[in-house]
């Protein structure tokens, strides 16, 4: 990686992000796959930025960056579908994710003059999504966090509450009633415990609601029941597959390690509710956290257990790799302050600085914004302004001709996890780094 400085660009306020929509060959993608581009040799742009030398970039802070965000929101709202037949994809790549983005922007004081319009638009979008999941015949999909009903009900409650509507209780009640769906050990044949559709996702949604609304949505007994199901499921799988560690899971037959469908986000949610666990259960979780830490290969983690990372072809994404696994170790560090967990996060950040200018678009799942969120995480963990600078550089890159010309086309241009809505969340969080957090993936609660 060259340390040569790139020529400074104009303020973000004068720039806009452009994306080329991909031609869709079907419905929205149901989960984040690792195989779609596995033969690519170069997954990232070269990082030619000089590193932090004690000063942040001018023109990227405060009100100066607001017009760029507003322009991008306007672009998204021209693309988002509003018909109930287009509501598949949940928060991941459905219109409900746009509603969450509008809620997130409306919460930032710098956008106070847009707050009412954004929230009303968010309500229009989420209302249609709620009607869609209310009619979902598959109760398991209604219990899904990022791809189904649980996430949509949670976001609806946040939006209604921000608008001062007493109706926010209705989606909360629908959300709470789903706990019985995901409590049985094997409620999903594909794998019952991961983040997108499984139990870890349901707990994650409850955590977001607790953080944003200040109330515990589920009872202690309900939370314990779900946590115990996750632990028992992991113990059964590890025993059945004769694993040399206590907890393991699979999704569609693959033993994923990353945040999207893997062990790291399952353990992160168990740590988030560790007060609900017995002493023996806590021991199993912490043993598994340390097991996963020991799977590190050159500051990264393979997408699945036992794989060997090919350095020229490694995945450095939130969904698969260090940018997502880092959140587990951040949570572990926040709980017990052991330096090895923070050191692991810092090494992940160094890899992201080298290989995080991803060619797969601007999004948070496997794009540049998802990479840059690691720097905001590290800033909150360490207070080191170097990480704000690095996040600023990644934000700057999103507006360059090199990125526009060389990044892949995106099917759901408007979406939260693959498209511009997640990018907007990142740009807003860059304006308020002390409150920044990867969307819907609470660590600081």
TrEMBL record:
Hydrolase in keyword set: no
Record: residues binding Zn(2+): 319, 365-366
Family designation: Belongs to the LanC-like protein family.
One protein family per Pfam: LANC_like
Entry-linked InterPro entries: 6hp_glycosidase-like_sf, LANC-like, LanC-like_prot_euk
Keyword Thylakoid belongs to the record: no
Superkingdom of the source species: Eukaryota
Gene Ontology MF terms in the entry: metal ion binding
Biological process according to GO: carbohydrate metabolic process; peptide modification
Protein name in UniProt: LanC-like protein 3
Keyword annotations from UniProtKB, A to Z: Metal-binding, Zinc
Recorded GO CC terms: plasma membrane
């Amino acid at each position: 990686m060259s340390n040569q400085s790139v020529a400074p660009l104009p303020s973000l306020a004068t720039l806009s992000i452009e994306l080329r929509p991909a031609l869709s060959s079907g419905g929205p993608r149901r989960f984040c796959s690792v195989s779609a581009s596995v033969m690519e040799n170069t997954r990232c742009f070269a990082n030619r930025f000089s590193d932090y030398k004690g000063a942040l970039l001018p023109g990227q802070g405060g009100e100066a960056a607001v017009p760029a965000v507003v322009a991008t929101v306007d672009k998204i709202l021209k693309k988002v579908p509003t018909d109930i037949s287009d509501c598949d994809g949940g928060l991941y790549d459905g219109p409900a994710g746009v509603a969450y983005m509008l809620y997130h922007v409306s919460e930032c004081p710098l956008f106070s003059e847009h707050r009412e319009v954004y929230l009303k638009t968010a309500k229009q979008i989420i209302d249609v999504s709620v009607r869609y999941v209310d009619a979902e015949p598959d109760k398991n999909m209604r219990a899904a966090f990022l791809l189904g009903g649980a996430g949509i009900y949670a976001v609806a409650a946040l939006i209604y509450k921000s608008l001062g509507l007493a109706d926010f209780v209705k989606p909360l009640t629908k959300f709470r009633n789903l706990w019985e769906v995901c409590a049985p050990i094997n409620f999903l044949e594909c794998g019952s415990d991961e983040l997108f559709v499984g139990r870890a996702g349901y707990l994650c949604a409850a955590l977001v609601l607790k953080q944003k609304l200040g109330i515990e949505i589920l009872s202690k007994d309900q939370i314990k029941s779900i946590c115990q199901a996750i632990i028992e499921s992991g113990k059964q799988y590890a025993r059945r597959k004769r694993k040399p560690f206590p907890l393991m899971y699979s999704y569609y037959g693959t033993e994923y390690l990353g945040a999207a469908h893997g062990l790291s986000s399952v353990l992160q949610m168990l740590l988030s509710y560790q007060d609900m666990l017995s002493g023996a259960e806590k021991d199993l979780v912490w043993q598994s956290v340390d097991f996963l830490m020991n799977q590190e290969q050159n500051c990264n983690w393979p997408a699945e257990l036992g794989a060997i990372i090919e350095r020229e072809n490694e995945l450095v994404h939130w969904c698969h790799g260090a940018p997502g696994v880092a959140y587990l170790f951040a949570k572990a560090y926040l709980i017990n302050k052991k330096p090895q967990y923070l050191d692991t996060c810092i090494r992940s950040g160094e890899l992201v600085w080298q290989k995080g200018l991803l060619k797969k678009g601007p999004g948070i799942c496997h794009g540049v914004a998802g990479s840059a969120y690691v720097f905001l995480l590290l800033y909150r963990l360490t207070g080191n302004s170097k990480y704000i600078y690095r996040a600023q550089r990644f934000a700057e890159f999103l507006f360059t001709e090199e990125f526009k010309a060389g990044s892949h086309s995106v099917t759901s241009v408007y979406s939260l996890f693959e498209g511009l809505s997640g990018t907007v969340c990142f740009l807003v969080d860059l304006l308020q780094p002390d409150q920044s957090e990867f969307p819907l993936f609470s660590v600081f609660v």
